[in-house]
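Q&A log
Question type: sequence-to-structure
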Amino acid sequence: MAALTRTLRTRLLAPGLVFLLALLSGCAVPLGPGFRVSRESVTVRYRPSLPGFHYTVRAVVRNTGNRPLDAVRIQVARQQRGGVAAASTLGSQTAAAGGKRLSFALPFQPPLGQKETRRQVPFSYVVPAHGQAVLLEPRDWFPVFLPPEGLFAEGEPRARKTELDIFVPADYRVLTTGRALAVHRDLRGGVSEYRFETRNGDFLPFLLIARYAEQTIGNGKDRVAFWTRRTLPGACAEAFAAHLGETSRFYRSTFTRARKDNRPIPFIELPTGNASPIRDEADGFGSVPGGVVFSVPATELCAQPSRYFFPADRALAATWFGWAVEPERGSRPILAAGVQRYAALAAEERAGGAAARDRQVANWLAEYDRDARLAAPVAPARLTSHSTPLQRRMAGIQSALSLIALQDRFGALPVERALAHLVRSLRGKSAGLNELRSALEEETGSDLYGFFNRWLGRPEIPAAFRRRYSRRATVGRTDRTNSKSRRTP
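Response status: OK
Response body:
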């Protein structure tokens, strides 16, 4: 896709010039400091009686830069309850309030020479955490490497291979991203050991440690693994497994494969008083890479499962739009909340036809208007850190409706192809409004500057769209076939 390719080329222009200058000058040495981490092991020890997670990181680092390397910096966690002191083998360092992450410098003594590879001295630290069960987002616990300081600096944020070694009380279970290597239960002292392996092409791993029941339902890639305080009734679990399996197949076929492995889709009950708040993206549902988290009481969830199918679909869509492609700062309501809503709506339309889509759009319009009576809407492209949760929710609805408007104008396939190309081209990277617009312009063959400015640059939903999807217009509308509603341009 030429437009998106041009955007990506702009991003890569500076490194490309550096490479060209290096060739022209005949320079065989990198132009700035740099490193690569080939292997890494992360050991986690958790005991509910102790106020914290105990981490140890060991890494094999190669100096790929143009000078000796004194240290590499590692970013280890984000603290949710204000400032915190994290004790480490290198002394105490403090994270400021406001969700900033903890970071440490891991020194090399003596400095790591050019092209030299060395195993880093084990580095240990403790991050406070509380609760008898915890679910941590990848950004809240997994260590990543920061690039070195200096002009033309290069550094990979993750090791090419990471081994996770997790020690927990014997009656606890562990779930994380990655390939399970071994489980040694009830070691000496009532401790169990869980070992996993991840690659730098995998999602950053989340971490669940809890005394939970586990049940897996389904076949192949569409299996669902339920991790809950108590085993869910069979009919409830089977209903969610069948629905999420169908939704996952639709997302994979429409927006490209997001996972490389055959692991089941995790469906996790959020622990009470969880140390790491999972974002409530959809009416009591949140996400981890590849899976869904719910905070709705299990009795309520199973009383009427179909009531919660759509919020679960929205949360699962975050695997593609939120984890595989991370929204740039300020664009989350558009590239996460908005696109997730649109993806879930596309899945619902596939199952229930255009009438189901029209009903959901009418519901969103009504929800937007209710919120607008409580808070002044803000244009999705103009949200700031001071915008309220209600304003962000309205921006997410408006962003989703903008994609519906594009679908009405050009058909569903160009919109879906554009989103799929975004995932393929920018997997593991961040994306913003420019990348989304470039992909959509390429697939629709139209200049969408005016459309984006009208829909995302103003704090209102266009009147013509409202008239089409008003509740009165929806009443009696016949159900069109899926093939017509998903027409090509």
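Response note: The first helix runs from residue 2 to 11.
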